[in-house]
């Protein structure tokens, strides 16, 4: 069976198309499908960011004071880590389309997953510091202004939801690595590589907006 | 043979590294701007830089520049519906503040 024949999904033969044409159609359908999913995720995270915007407009001073309590070093480091994982994901996605670049694809997938794990480790260190500083909303909350609790409610919600998304991304990329190692023909031209890495790119974009929202507010003056 | 195999890899790396370098430079710029003398405009500068970074990732890393019209439409739809969500909700929020 040809390489394309292995990747194509049944049923496709009822359309009477050639194998390569049917596969090209399946690939474009898969890309369209993940973008529709990403558009629905834009609305999900859009609602979360809208909550932030509405709360910040009403409680500007308390949000500035609360945002000053987040650790900008951890936040900036994690942004750089995720932007770099976007680089390796992009290279892996393009390399997977070339027959001779299987090893590069695998290495870049591994680097992407490793950078994702590094992000979670840094986030874990940051969470520990936040808990020690009593930045969890509740009776022992560190800041006097009541709306500062709204900020940290948003902080835990948004970073938690993002970390869940990133963990799913690490799982998807790990699966690609496992399948790619077992079967030499599986990665090349496979739509699953592009789909998983488009999802990864979206998770990157969410963090790009979380960074100014959580770490940069209230720093000047 | 080996040269033929290396050249697409080099082209892929070169293109992606340029985008990555711009993204990291924008990150540094955003950090500096947060401490800068922009007053009330700081939030606009920071989210403006974030929007530029997100555009670069979506267009060049997520390859919207090479995508079909249908895929681009799907991507824009998410933003379109989200903008309606923002516009209607924030019009309420701002009108309450204006009338206090």
TrEMBL record, chain A:
<dbReference type="InterPro" id="IPR013833">
    <property type="entry name" value="Cyt_c_oxidase_su3_a-hlx"/>
</dbReference>
<feature type="transmembrane region" description="Helical">
    <location>
        <begin position="72"/>
        <end position="92"/>
    </location>
</feature>
<feature type="transmembrane region" description="Helical">
    <location>
        <begin position="197"/>
        <end position="217"/>
    </location>
</feature>
<dbReference type="GO" id="GO:0019646">
    <property type="term" value="P:aerobic electron transport chain"/>
</dbReference>
<dbReference type="InterPro" id="IPR035973">
    <property type="entry name" value="Cyt_c_oxidase_su3-like_sf"/>
</dbReference>
<feature type="transmembrane region" description="Helical">
    <location>
        <begin position="150"/>
        <end position="177"/>
    </location>
</feature>
<comment type="similarity">
    <text>Belongs to the cytochrome c oxidase subunit 3 family.</text>
</comment>
<feature type="transmembrane region" description="Helical">
    <location>
        <begin position="104"/>
        <end position="125"/>
    </location>
</feature>
<dbReference type="GO" id="GO:0005886">
    <property type="term" value="C:plasma membrane"/>
</dbReference>
<dbReference type="GO" id="GO:0004129">
    <property type="term" value="F:cytochrome-c oxidase activity"/>
</dbReference>
<protein>
    <submittedName>
        <fullName>Cytochrome oxidase subunit III</fullName>
    </submittedName>
</protein>
<dbReference type="InterPro" id="IPR024791">
    <property type="entry name" value="Cyt_c/ubiquinol_Oxase_su3"/>
</dbReference>
<feature type="transmembrane region" description="Helical">
    <location>
        <begin position="32"/>
        <end position="52"/>
    </location>
</feature>
<dbReference type="Pfam" id="PF00510">
    <property type="entry name" value="COX3"/>
</dbReference>
<feature type="domain" description="Heme-copper oxidase subunit III family profile">
    <location>
        <begin position="1"/>
        <end position="219"/>
    </location>
</feature>
<dbReference type="InterPro" id="IPR000298">
    <property type="entry name" value="Cyt_c_oxidase-like_su3"/>
</dbReference>
<keyword id="KW-1133">Transmembrane helix</keyword>
<keyword id="KW-0472">Membrane</keyword>
<keyword id="KW-0812">Transmembrane</keyword>
UniProtKB/TrEMBL annotation, chain B:
<dbReference type="InterPro" id="IPR005171">
    <property type="entry name" value="Cyt_c_oxidase_su4_prok"/>
</dbReference>
<keyword id="KW-0472">Membrane</keyword>
<feature type="transmembrane region" description="Helical">
    <location>
        <begin position="40"/>
        <end position="62"/>
    </location>
</feature>
<dbReference type="Pfam" id="PF03626">
    <property type="entry name" value="COX4_pro"/>
</dbReference>
<dbReference type="InterPro" id="IPR011743">
    <property type="entry name" value="Caa3_sub_IV"/>
</dbReference>
<dbReference type="GO" id="GO:0005886">
    <property type="term" value="C:plasma membrane"/>
</dbReference>
<protein>
    <recommendedName>
        <fullName>Oxidase</fullName>
    </recommendedName>
</protein>
<feature type="transmembrane region" description="Helical">
    <location>
        <begin position="12"/>
        <end position="34"/>
    </location>
</feature>
<keyword id="KW-1133">Transmembrane helix</keyword>
<keyword id="KW-0812">Transmembrane</keyword>
<feature type="transmembrane region" description="Helical">
    <location>
        <begin position="69"/>
        <end position="90"/>
    </location>
</feature>
<keyword id="KW-1003">Cell membrane</keyword>
């Amino acid at each position: 069976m040809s390489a394309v024949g292995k990747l194509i999904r049944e049923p496709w033969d009822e359309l009477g198309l050639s194998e390569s044409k049917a596969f090209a159609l399946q690939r474009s359908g898969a890309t369209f499908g993940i973008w529709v999913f990403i558009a629905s995720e834009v609305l999900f995270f859009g609602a979360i960011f809208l909550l932030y915007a509405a709360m910040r407009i009403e409680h500007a001073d308390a949000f500035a004071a609360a945002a000053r309590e987040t650790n900008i070093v951890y936040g900036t480091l994690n942004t750089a880590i995720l932007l770099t994982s976007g680089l390796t994901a992009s290279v892996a996605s393009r390399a997977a389309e070339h027959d001779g670049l299987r090893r590069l694809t695998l290495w870049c997938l591994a680097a992407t997953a490793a950078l994702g794990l590094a992000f979670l480790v840094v986030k874990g260190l940051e969470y520990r510091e936040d808990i020690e500083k009593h930045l969890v909303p509740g009776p022992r909350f560190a800041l006097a202004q009541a709306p500062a609790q709204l900020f940290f409610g948003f902080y835990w919600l948004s970073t938690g939801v993002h970390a869940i998304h990133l963990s799913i991304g690490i799982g998807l990329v790990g699966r690609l690595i496992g399948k790619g190692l077992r079967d030499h023909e599986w990665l090349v031209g496979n739509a699953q590589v592009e789909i998983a890495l488009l999802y990864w790119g979206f998770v990157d974009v969410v963090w790009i907006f979380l960074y100014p929202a959580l770490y940069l507010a209230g720093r000047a003056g | 043979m080996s040269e033929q195999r290396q050249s697409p890899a080099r082209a892929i790396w070169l293109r992606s590294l340029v985008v990555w370098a711009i993204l990291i430079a924008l990150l540094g710029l955003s950090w500096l701007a947060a401490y800068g003398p922009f007053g009330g405009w700081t939030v606009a500068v920071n989210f403006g830089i974030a929007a530029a970074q997100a555009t670069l990732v979506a267009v060049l890393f997520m390859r919207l520049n090479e995508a079909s019209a249908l895929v681009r439409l799907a991507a824009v739809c998410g933003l379109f519906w989200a903008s309606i969500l923002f516009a209607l909700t924030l019009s309420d929020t701002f009108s309450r503040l204006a009338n206090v």
